[in-house]
UniProtKB/TrEMBL annotation:
Pfam families: HATPase_c_5 (PF14501). Residues 333-436 form the Sensor histidine kinase NatK-like C-terminal domain. Residues 220-247 form a coiled coil. The chain crosses the membrane at residues 7-30, 36-69, 76-96, 116-136, 156-178, 190-208. GO terms for molecular function: identical protein binding. Keywords: Coiled coil, Membrane, Transmembrane, Transmembrane helix. The lineage of its organism: Bacteria, Bacillati, Bacillota, Bacilli, Bacillales. InterPro entries: HATPase_C_sf (IPR036890), NatK-like_C (IPR032834). This is ATPase.
Length: 437
């Protein structure tokens, strides 16, 4: 069989294997139709190999990157996953060549002379690459590394290190091909590649460790800020209680006047006009947020209580429905509170611009998910939903809104979290449903 055909068949096997590795590292984000289209585009580039030789890999990397971007993966993940895939291919190739040649007694120069040896070599090499990818993905999931990579600063550093590694590997292969792939060169390259791969892992470990420490520090600062806000609210409530106590004494004093004059009819009218409405207002406000006691995620309960009390102080009609016990929510508390805070802040802002300010909140369980529903009245000139998530958009004016845009970026880090947004024009109500699996 013609050697060019054998080589193209081998590249076909490698391309399919590379696609599987990309799927493993990305968490199988491409469904079968999307995956099939991506694979067809990648395979369609194979005839270019006689022209651009080993640089064909960069073309296939670009195709995989576009596919991941289409699936709304971040730019960092979309670059790193395909690049790491080809690094694993190269490392697997050199590792297996040092096993294949001694075991089967076939010189490297003759591996691609026959279809059987070439196909078995390529298949075995891709199996090793898939095993490496599976192990790496386990570590990525265990330590939630993609979350840190998606941080801009560390994302750029990780991308730079990965692409530099890939470039060095390809330059080495290019010059090795020019000199001929003799066994001594292959062994030397294997040592170099493994050493550099170990250095790459070490550098990425240090970068991600730094990211972990920085994010921990940031989380602590956010928790401290929330604690300060909570303390400030408690102080305000304490001051309100002092004022209420003062008013209560005045009320009793005014009632004493009616009693001294034995004016029961006047006392009755005074009581119905002044005391009963205050009592009803206190009971109503307390009842409307009392179901927060069913939330046993302390940080979330404190945040909601603070913001809802302030909403009531702004004369917003607030109602909360938490009919069942919420013991835990599958999302880090800092980002959970950040998401809930942004949604509630925007609900308050929009409600204040409406004719009759209303906010409704419901938290409930649905199968294995916890759903948080935020609904608020909106002004008649409410902008389209897609505009709300743009950077800098705010109903208060230009260059003020970063909340919902920031929320969108945060939620992209959690595949188990979805945000459904809709506008009910008939009820003049804006509804956001945060579902956490």
């Amino acid at each position: 069989m013609d050697q060019t055909i054998i080589l193209l068949i081998t590249i076909l096997i490698q391309t399919v294997g590379l696609f599987i590795v990309v799927e493993i590292l990305s968490g199988w984000v491409l469904k079968w139709k999307e995956g099939a289209v991506t694979l067809v585009f990648a395979i369609a580039t194979i005839p270019l190999f006689p022209v651009i030789t080993y640089w064909l890999n960069l073309v296939i990397i670009f195709i995989f990157m576009i596919a991941l971007l289409y699936k709304k993966q971040t730019i960092f993940i979309s670059i790193i996953v395909p690049a790491l895939t080809f690094i694993l291919l190269i490392v697997s190739d050199y590792i297996f060549s040092n096993i294949f040649v001694p075991v089967f007694k076939i010189p490297i120069s003759e591996i691609y002379q026959g279809l059987g040896s070439a196909a078995s070599y390529a298949t075995s090499m891709m199996i090793i690459a898939c095993l490496f990818a599976y192990i790496i993905k386990k570590f990525v999931d265990k330590w939630d590394l993609y979350t840190y990579i998606n941080q801009k600063k560390y994302g750029f550093i990780t991308v730079a290190i990965t692409l530099l590694t890939l470039l060095i590997y390809h330059l080495n292969i290019f010059f090795s091909a020019a000199d001929g792939f003799v066994q001594e060169v292959v062994r030397l390259n294997t040592i170099i590649f493994l050493a550099y791969f170990a250095i790459l892992i070490g550098m990425l470990y240090l970068v991600l460790q730094s990211a972990v420490q920085e994010i921990k520090m940031k989380n602590q600062q956010e928790q401290f800020a929330q604690l300060q806000e909570y303390t400030s609210t408690l102080e305000e409530l304490h001051n309100e209680m002092r004022v209420f106590r003062h008013d209560y004494i005045n009320i009793l004093s005014s009632m004493a006047g009616y009693i001294d004059e034995n004016d029961m009819e006047g006392l009755k009218k005074y009581f119905e006009k002044n005391i009963v409405p205050i009592n009803q207002q206190i009971e109503t406000n307390d009842y409307r947020i009392s179901t927060l006691q069913n939330i046993h995620v302390t940080e979330l309960k404190g945040l909601l209580a603070i913001k809802l009390i302030r909403a009531q102080e702004l004369n917003i009609d607030v109602s909360v429905e938490v009919t069942e016990e919420i013991n835990s929510i599958n999302m880090p508390s800092v980002d959970l509170c950040k998401a809930a805070g942004i949604l509630l802040d925007n609900a308050v802002e929009a409600a204040l611009g409406s004719e009759r300010p209303i906010i409704r909140i419901a938290i409930f369980k649905r199968e294995e998910a916890t759903t948080m529903l935020f609904a608020n009245s909106v002004p008649k000139d409410m902008p389209p939903v897609y505009k709300i998530f743009e950077d800098g958009f705010s109903t208060k004016g230009t260059n003020r809104g970063i909340g919902l845009s920031s929320l969108r970026d945060t939620l992209q880090e959690y595949p188990n979290v979805t945000l459904d947004t809709k506008l009910d024009e008939d009820k003049q109500e804006f509804i956001q449903e945060l579902e956490i699996m």
